[in-house]
TrEMBL record, chain A:
Domain Mop as annotated: residue spans: 292-358
Molecular function as annotated in GO: ABC-type transporter activity; ATP binding; ATP hydrolysis activity; molybdate ion transmembrane transporter activity
Species in which this protein is naturally found: Thalassovita taeanensis
Pfam families: ABC_tran, TOBE
The protein's name in its UniProt record: Molybdate transport system ATP-binding protein
SUPFAM superfamilies (UniProt xref): MOP-like, P-loop containing nucleoside triphosphate hydrolases
PROSITE patterns: ABC_TRANSPORTER_1, ABC_TRANSPORTER_2, MOP
UniProtKB/TrEMBL annotation, chain B:
Role description: Part of the binding-protein-dependent transport system for molybdenum; probably responsible for the translocation of the substrate across the membrane.
GO cellular component: plasma membrane
Organism: Thalassovita taeanensis
Transmembrane spans: 20-38, 50-71, 91-116, 136-159, 199-221
Domain ABC transmembrane type-1: 12-220
One Pfam assignment: BPD_transp_1
Entry keywords, A to Z: Cell inner membrane, Cell membrane, Membrane, Molybdenum, Transmembrane, Transmembrane helix, Transport
Subcellular location(s) per record: Cell inner membrane; Cell membrane
Principal place of residence: membrane
Protein's UniProt name: Molybdenum transport system permease
Membrane-topology annotation of the record: Multi-pass membrane protein
């Protein structure tokens, strides 16, 4: 399962020139507004015709400028979840859900439908009209509608951007389950790094119409080079960690590649793998193992990359076990610690600095 | 009906028949033209727009005369219709239906075009990504969403057809039992001294029919709009 995209499209102010592969799992297309993300997704869906493009899904060509091939959207077998839910107002929730299914030549009432309705929590909504639903409910119906058309690829263009924080928190777990429980590859457009860190398995960073970086989420988010694009405050690595136990004092103990992590209680059974996003600005570095410190999480590692920008800070990438952590410290501290590549070092993370939002299901 | 004399009843029945036929035949064409004007990009779009609106701005008598020039028995198009289908329009009720349809056409197109322009193309895009071809998108999304506009257009067209006078009397004259519609009958009665009572009855009927049509359309359009709004 993979999507191959190669697009050139000229806009008034810039030229989009992007090529990337999206393997199975969630491929996040990340970039600032106006970096060309939506254009890429619309070209994949067939809603716009780029100046030049070559897009294939699995073994099927969707469009190829060289042979003037261009499949119309309804023949591409894609599910598209838009920023606004775009539910059909004259149809009930159930009719909306079955709309794409009918065109795919599939039966409406099926085990698949029941499973998805349960997964997305749509049961109580089926008889209602879209106008009477909340924003979060609408978006869940839109996701269900796209999935029930049995697509070979799911496109999501900032599906959470129009929702408030509470609604986002409501939908994110559904998206995680979708990623872990369905086999459909997902191309997910976002400019919110928190969502990308929670959901993505592969990240493609777009900047000014070009692909800046592309690769597995752990590698990309711990790459100091993308910090200018995503913003220094948003920079931070994603660690996979397994829940070991929950302590009675309200802390959960997790086992990560570099060592033990203590976090404010997480809602997951021992044995579950979680992904934990650790913001670079929440990490303190020390050359020696600190003693008499309130911070609980001390991960040993070696400096693998130092990236200095224009400002007073530097980003330090630390290899800990087989994972990387990113720390943002001042140049002055980096010099005082005499940090350089290969030097052993300890990363110190305050337990309470890891917010609930930054802990999600693994994979 | 004892309220109306047979001759008066004839005029009412003819008007209803003419208007129903005019509306039924003009409506699909009006939907097509409204779609072309709202969504199409083609050379001559402004020309089509002008042509559609012509009956609204021309004096009705001019429209009627132009119809006579085009669809009269000896006119090119009228002659061809007679030779090919045996269809005669001039001075027949069929001609009255044609005149009424043409006069109501711009009103239908305007109402439907407004409704089409109010449909969010993003919904149609969403339907396309769900596997619907353009024809299916129209049938399952666009058409249901513009239904209130279609109803409004149809009622406006019907009301215009019921009241059409100038083009009708010019094209098909005022033959009792053949082409004498409600307005023509009222006009004819007003020319006869002492027929005011009869004329007033028809006037009252005219008002009742118009109000009834308007109320019905309001009801239907409101129901359709409620369906469409998704609440």
């Amino acid at each position: 399962m993979s999507l191959r995209v190669q697009i050139t499209h000229r806009f008034d102010s810039f030229t989009l020139n992007a090529a990337f592969d999206a393997p199975a799992g969630v491929t996040a297309l990340f970039g600032a507004s106006g970096s060309g993300k939506t254009t890429v997704v619309n070209a994949v869906a067939g809603l716009i015709k780029p100046d030049q493009a070559r897009i294939s899904l699995n073994d099927q060509m969707l469009c190829d400028s060289a042979t003037r091939l261009w499949l119309p959207p309804h023949k591409r077998r894609l599910g598209y979840v838009f920023q606004e839910a775009r539910l059909f107002p004259h149809l009930s929730v159930q009719q909306n859900l079955r709309y794409g299914r009918w065109f795919a030549g599939l039966r409406g009432d099926s085990a698949e439908e029941t499973r998805l309705i349960t997964l997305l929590g749509l049961g109580p909504l089926l008889a209602r009209r879209p106008g009477a639903l909340s924003g979060g409910e609408k978006q869940r119906v839109a996701i269900g509608r796209a999935l029930l058309s049995a697509p070979e690829l799911l496109l999501m263009d900032e599906p959470l951007a129009a929702l408030d924080e509470a609604r986002k928190a409501e939908i994110l777990p559904y998206l995680e389950r979708l990623r872990d429980e369905t086999q459909i590859p997902i191309l997910y457009v976002s400019h919110a790094m928190a969502e990308v860190a929670r959901l993505a398995t592969t990240v493609v960073v777009l900047s000014d119409g070009k692909v800046l970086r592309a690769g597995p989420v752990q590698n990309i988010l711990s790459d100091p080079g993308i910090a200018p694009t995503i913003g220094l405050r948003e920079a931070g690595a994603v660690l996979l960690a397994q829940v070991v136990t929950h302590h009675p004092d309200g802390l959960s103990e997790l086992s990560a590649a570099g060592g033990r992590l203590f976090l404010p209680e997480v809602t997951a059974q021992p044995g579950r793998t979680l992904r934990v996003r650790i913001l670079a600005q929440d990490v303190i570095l020390s050359r020696t193992r600190p003693d008499g410190l309130s911070a609980l999480n001390i991960l040993p590692g070696t400096v693998s990359m130092i990236h200095a920008g224009d400002g007073p800070g530097v980003l330090v990438q630390l290899q800990t076990g087989d994972a990387q952590i990113l720390a943002r410290i001042t140049q002055r501290s980096a010099q005082a610690l005499e940090l350089s590549e290969g030097k052993p070092c300890y990363a110190i993370i305050k337990s309470v600095s890891v917010a609930q939002d930054n802990v999600g299901r693994g994979a | 009906m004892s309220f109306l004399s047979p001759a008066e009843w004839q005029a009412v029945a003819l008007s209803l028949r003419v208007s129903l036929w005019a509306t039924a035949l003009a409506l699909p064409l009006a939907i097509g033209v409204a779609l072309a004007l709202a969504r199409g990009h083609f050379p001559g779009k402004q020309l089509l727009n002008g042509l559609v609106h012509l009956p609204l701005i021309l004096p009705p008598v001019v429209t009627g005369y132009l119809l006579l020039l085009t669809f009269g028995r000896r006119a090119p198009l009228g002659g061809w219709l007679y030779d090919t289908f045996g269809l005669v329009l001039a001075f027949r009720w069929t001609g009255a239906a044609l005149a009424a349809g043409i006069m109501g056409f711009p009103l239908m197109v305007r109402a439907i075009r407004l409704a089409i322009e109010a449909v969010d193309p993003k919904l149609e895009q969403a339907a396309a990504t769900l596997g619907a071809s353009r024809a299916w998108v129209f049938a399952t999304i666009t058409l249901p969403l513009i239904l209130p506009g279609i109803i409004a257009g149809a009622v406006l067209g019907f009301a215009k057809a019921m009241g059409e006078f100038g083009a009708t009397i010019t094209f098909v004259s005022n033959i009792p039992g053949q082409t004498q519609t409600l307005p023509s009958a009222i006009y004819a009665l007003l020319q006869v001294p002492g027929a005011e009572t009869s004329a007033l009855k028809l006037v009252a009927l005219s008002v009742t029919l118009a109000m009834g049509a308007l109320l019905l359309s309001e009801l239907l359009a409101r129901r359709a709009a409620k369906r469409v709004s998704g609440a």
